[in-house]
Amino acid sequence: MSTDDALAAALAAAGLGNVRPGEPAPIVVAAQDEPEEEPAQPQERWPAGAATAIGSLPGTDPREAAATVVGELPLLPYLPELPARGVGADIVGRTASLLVDIAVEVRPSGYRVADRPGRDHRIAVDLLRGDMDAFDEACDPVRPAWVKVQAAGPWSLAATVELHTGHRVLTDHGAVREFTASLTEGLRQHVAEVAARTGASVVLQLDEPALPAVIAGQIPTPSGYGTVRAVAETDAQDALRDLITALGVPVVVHCCADEPPVRLLNGIGAAGISIDATRPAVSGRTALPAALDALGETWDAGTPLLLGIVPTHDPGRPVAAPALAKRVFELADRLGFDRHRLTELTVPTPACGLAGATPNWARRAMALCAELAKAFGDPDE
Q1: Which CATH number fits domain 3-12+46-275+289-305: 3.30.1450, 1.10.10, 3.40.50, 3.20.20?
Q2: I need a labelling partner for 240 at 20 to 30 A (CA). Which of 86, 95, 155, 261 fits?
Q3: β-bridge mates for residue 255, sequence order
Q4: What residues have CB less than 8 Å from 147, skipping those under 6 apart?
Q5: Does residue 169 contact residue 175 with C-beta atoms inside 8 Å?
Q6: Is the CB of residue 158 less than 8 Å from the CB of residue 206?
Q7: Does residue 319 surpass a pLDDT of 50?
Q8: How far apart are alpha carbons 223 and 260 in whole angstroms?
Q9: Cα–Cα dist 133/116, whole Å
Q10: How many other CB atoms are found less than 10 A from the CB of residue 116?
Q11: How far apart are CA 278 and CA 135, in angstroms?
């Protein structure tokens, strides 16, 4: 598979199919005149035994989608994305509508920075507003303690949106900083509004399908004959860490690429790391030792993994939760972790977004995730 095809596949799996690529710890003794620092408090997280999904669903009816999500995933429901509605409903257009003092528009090559908010921006804002209304309505009878919202992460956004020149935002360090600052403020406002509407604590999921290509220098230039210079892993970490710190809510980073940079993501203060656990690099006999070591280090640090284990499309044969759970139990055994800890260290999800599934399978996939969470809570049964 070519670099372009691999990037396109990763973006499509995350719901970007409608967007064409553009460019014991040591004791510290405080000085006599300085107050002693308070010990760090454990980060608040969603309830143990929760299950969720990545974000996208099939269809165009936000009320039906919200009701389905809240019904199937009551411990950690999420604000659904319905990319089948077109421009502004996909994850990039949706996220761009949250940017503060930056607007984008659609060009034949994809999303591009605009001088001022236009029709495309208004469509995206209106769609998101309607989705939030529908989600608030669905949550009202249940009042979940936690909810999840999703947005494109700063690196995948910068690797997808174009500047006026046609080159990607990623090519301009100053533009990357501006986009990240704008995104941070927009997400802060978005999270605060969702929390106020639902009365729930909010966990934010940042979708970073392009991150591996960004740090590997595999993002193509507009001509297709070259690639954008690689971003240093430390720079990628710093931007994500700063964003997470500024938001002050639990942030999960989702990467559905073949070989997600788990070690990089484990060093940014994320509340969880979400991966496609069916990928050959981390699954079964084809699993790579380095990839498994990274997962073990993540669990060792107490960071939960959102394991995408449920198929995103109907496989055409019966799928039972015990068979899926067995794969996760085997992973825990292989990494040397007590299966009883899975309920706190693992959140079952579909392998990636469900936008390409049938409505029946999307509902079944979410139900399987909930069944898996129960299985993790009683691994001896």
Answers
A1: 3.20.20
A2: 86
A3: 275
A4: 76, 77, 78, 79, 135, 139, 194, 198, 200, 201, 202, 203
A5: yes
A6: no
A7: yes
A8: 27
A9: 26
A10: 7
A11: 30
Q: Is residue 19 classed as helix, strand or coil in its secondary structure?
A: coil
Secondary structure, 3-state, 314-367 = CCCCCCCHHHHHHHHHHHHHHHCCCHHHHHHHEEEEECCCCCCCCHHHHHHHHH
- Condensed to tens digits (0 to 9), the pLDDT of residues 124-156 reads 999 999 999 999 999 999 999 999 999 999 999
Q: Which is nearest to 182 in space by CA: 100, 127, 243? A: 100
Q: Which two tokens mark 144?
A: 């979940």
Structural element, H or E, at residue 147: strand 146-152
- How far CA 315 is from CA of 53, 320, 371, 375, in Å, comes to 18, 12, 18, 22
299, two tokens: 């669990």
The rounded distance, in Å, linking the Cα atoms of 79 and 184 is 19
| Helix (H), strand (E) at residue 274 | strand 272-276
Domain ranges of the chain: 3-12+46-275+289-305
Q: Confidence class of residue 20 from pLDDT cuts 50, 70 and 90?
A: very low
Q: Cα(358)–Cα(378) distance, rounded to whole angstroms?
A: 31
**Residue 5 confidence (pLDDT):** 55
Look-up: residue for tokens 């978005």?
190
Burial class from Cβ neighbours inside 10 Å (0-12, 13-18, 19+) for residue 162 reads buried
**pLDDT band for position 26 (50/70/90)?**
very low
User: Where residue 380 falls among pLDDT bands split at 50, 70, 90?
Assistant: confident
Q: Quick one: which H or E segment has residue 125?
A: helix 119-139
Kindly state the tokens that stand for 97. 């509508």
Q: What is the pLDDT of residues 250-275, one digit of tens each?
A: 999 999 999 999 999 999 999 999 99
pLDDT one-digit tens code per residue, 72-111: 999 999 999 999 999 999 999 999 999 999 999 999 889 9
For 163-169, what is the mean pLDDT?
A: 93
